[in-house]
Amino acid sequence: MPSHFDLTGKAAIVTGSRTGLGQGIALALAQAGARIVGVDRGEAHETARLIGEAGGDFRHIQADLRTTAPIADIVGDTLDAYGALDILVNNAGIIRRADALDFTEADWDDVLNVNLKAAFFLAQASARAMLACGRGGKIINITSMLSFQGGIRVASYTSAKSGVMGLTRLLACEWAARGINVNAIAPGYMATDNTAALRADPERNAQILVRIPAGRWGRPSDLAGVAVFLASDAAAYVHGATIPVDGGWLAR
């Protein structure tokens, strides 16, 4: 019997695939059979190697998502390569830290442009392509614990990630009846480049760990099952959901 989780033949765009969560998601989708287009500011040699070793198909597009300029080409190149677009994972994100009293306009704009604005316009362009191909699709946005909570010293990041969760609901309401599932994953505290400063601070690291029922920082591989689920036919009737993968953080 065919698996509802089989992504064989599907074409997926994963932004921020070079390292961390995006790399883990890209690898998981490839292992489930999807063909991957990774979008990053820099090269993604390690991701290409991992997916190649898994027998997958990986293409890389180098693009800076601080502007919307590359979006049309990202979608167009994917269609040229694979003839369709089935899955979009809006994972690319940056973070800036400063007290709210000292936060700069540049740090506000840079984070909102990548984490929210680019996510919307890439979803828009992808949805247009999915509808034109006539077989619907799956859009997965990556939100955060700070979509639910305020946090400290990350004004633009909290605002952007809260916006992404709201955007997920809005797009689900508009596109569910047209065969496009829009959902989100909210990672908890993950061991990635974005959290390096927190993990290097003994006091903050201890404060975070004591709050996580699982007792450890998350790993990119912890998102694999949820990402494949939301990208697959198994999630056909799941719309507008944000699924926490947080080691129990929100339950505490």
Question: What do you see in this structure?
Answer:
This protein is α/β, with parallel strands linked by helices and 252 residues long. The chain has a single domain (11-190, 223-242), classed as NAD(P)-binding Rossmann-like Domain (Rossmann fold, 3-Layer(aba) Sandwich). The protein is built from eight helices and seven strands, in the order E-H-E-H-E-H-E-H-E-H-E-H-H-H-E. The protein has helices spanning 20-31, 45-53, 71-82, 105-133, 155-175, 196-200, 202-211, 224-231; strands at 11-15, 35-40, 57-62, 87-90, 137-142, 180-187, 242-245. The protein has a seven-stranded parallel β-sheet with strand order 3-2-1-4-5-6-7, with helices on both faces. Strand 4 (87-90), helix 4 (105-133) and strand 5 form a beta-alpha-beta unit.
Strand content: 15-25%
CATH class: Alpha Beta
* Gap from first CA to last CA: 40 Å
The multimeric state of the shown protein is single chain
Count the domains: 1
**Number of helices, where a helix is a run of at least 4 consecutive DSSP H or I residues:** 8
Architecture per CATH nomenclature, i.e. the level-2 architecture: 3-Layer(aba) Sandwich
Uncertain runs are none
**Biggest sheet: strands side by side, in what order?**
3-2-1-4-5-6-7
- Secondary-structure element order, as H and E? EHEHEHEHEHEHHHE
- Structural class designation: alpha/beta
Outline, from the CA principal axes? globular
- Mean pLDDT comes to 96
Q: What is the CATH superfamily?
A: NAD(P)-binding Rossmann-like Domain
Estimated helix fraction: 40-55%
CATH topology: Rossmann fold
Number of strands: 7
Largest sheet: 7 strands, parallel
Write down the Rg: 17 Å
